[in-house]
Amino acid sequence: MDFLARLHQDSIVCDLHADSLQWVAAGGSLGGHAGHLDLPRARAGGLDLQFFSVWVDVTYLPTDGEPDRSFARACEILDAFERETTRHTDAMAPVTSASDSRRIVAEGKLAAALGVEGGHAIESDLDKLEELYRRGVRYLTLTWNNSTDWAQAAKVEHQRGSPQGGLSPLGEAVVRRMNHLGMIVDLSHAAESTFWDVLRVSEAPVMASHSNAFALSPHYRNLKDEQIKALTERGGIIGINFYSSFLDADYARRREEAEERRRAELEALEREMPYDYPARAARERELLQAEMGHVPVPATRVADHIEYIARLVGPDHVALGSDFDGTNAVPDDIPDVSHLPIVTRLLHERGFSESDIRKILGGNVLRFFETVCG
Ligand SMILES: [Zn+2]
Q1: Number of domains comprising the chain
Q2: How far is 46 from 331, CA to CA, in rounded Å?
Q3: Distance CA 148, CA 150 (A)
Q4: CA of 4 to the centre of ligand 1 (A)
Q5: Do 120 and 265 fall into the same domain?
Q6: Alpha carbon of 216 to ligand 1 centroid (Å)
C-alpha cells in the first residue's frame, strides 16, 4: 500500500450527510444497492463515520385538511434504520457521540449517526424534537428547500429576492432546546436571514453539513465568505457537498436551463412517483442527461472548495458532506463512496500536510461532534 492509500485508510474518515436511508426506507439494503453508498463500498472507500440523513419529503406535509405526516415519516425512516443496523451488526453500529464513534471505528465497523433534514419533521412541537433526540438523532437541518413557520429556507428567500423571515420566537426556542439537549444545529439549506438569527441565538457551535463556497460557485445553497467566517469563528464546521450544481457554476447554469426546458416532464415525474425518491431521482437523471448531455465536473472541484475554505479560515473547519444518495449528479471521478481516497490524493497534491488532511477527512467532525454532543 502506498503512502497516500495508507494515510487514507489510517485516518478516521467522516461524512456529514448522505441520504441512503431513503433507499433503505424504500426497501433497499445497505448491504448493497444501486446508489452511491452501501456497506461494501463504504469499506472500500475507507469511510468510518457516516451521518445518515433522515430526510422528510414535503409530500408528507398536510394538504386539504389531511393531518401532517412529517413526524410519522421521520419515525418510519428511523425504524428502517434500526432494522438495517440489526441486520448488519458485523459491519455497522449506531452511534450518538464521538466516543461511541471512536469505539465502533476501532472495532472495524462503520459508525452510523443520524441527522434529520427538514425542520418540518418536528411539526412545530418541541416534544417531537426531544423524541427524535431520544431515538438517537444528533442533528437537525432546520429547513430543507421549504420554509417552516419558524425558519426560512434559502430557496424560498432566494425566490423572494431579499433576506427576510429568519427565525421566529418558536425557531429561537427550537435552537435553545437543541443547545440544551446537545443536538447539532445544521444550517445547510437555511436562508441567510435564518443563518444570522441562529448565530445570534445559539450558545453552541453550529455547522453546515452539506454546503460549499459561494465565491467559487454562486448558488443560494452555498455560503458567502462572511457566513463562512462567522460560522467558523464560533467553532463551527462546513461539510463540502459533492453535488455538481453546488461545486461548479457552469454545470449549475446548464442544468437549470435543462430543467427549465423539461419542466413539464419533471413535474409529471414528481406527480407520478411522489413517495419514491430514489427511483424518481434515477428517472430525473436520465431525463436531464438526455437534455443537457454530459457536462464534466471533476473531483478537483471538491478539492477547490476545500482549499478555498481552508485558505479563508484555516484547516480546522472544513469537512466532507457528500450528499451521496441525495443528489443525482456527482463528480465523474467520485461516482460513489468507494472513490473517496481521491480526495486524500488531491489534498496531498495541493500541499496539505498529513495532519491537515486527517483533520479534513474526519478529525474536525469528531472534535465538533464531541464539543456539541459529548
Ligand atoms: Zn440537503
Answers
A1: 2
A2: 18
A3: 5
A4: 30
A5: no
A6: 19
Q: Give the Å distance between the CA of 188 and the centre of ligand 1.
A: 7
Q: CA-CA distance, 333 to 211, in Å (whole number)?
A: 20
Looking at the fold, whether 103 and 20 belong to one and the same domain comes out as yes
Say whether both 216 and 270 belong to one domain.
Answer: no
The confidence score (pLDDT) of residue 163 equals 81
Residue 213: name the closest of 180, 248, 183 by CA.
Answer: 248
Q: 152 alpha carbon to ligand 1 midpoint, in Å?
A: 15
pTM, entire model: 0.96
Torsion of CA 261, 265, 271, 276, to 10 degrees: -100
Question: What was the pLDDT predicted at 204?
Answer: 98
Separation of 277 CA from ligand 1 center, angstroms? 13
Output the CA 210–ligand 1 centroid distance in Å.
7
CA of 294 to the centre of ligand 1 (A): 23
Give the residue ranges of the chain where pLDDT is below 50. Answer: none
Long-range CB contact pairs, 255-258, < 8 A, 24+: 255/288, 255/292, 255/295, 255/329, 257/292, 258/288, 258/291, 258/292
CA distance 206 to 160: 26
Q: How far is the CA of 107 from the centre of ligand 1 (A)?
A: 30
Beta strands in 26-101 (DSSP E): 47-55, 92-94
Question: Of 269, 296, 323, which residue is a domain's last?
Answer: 296
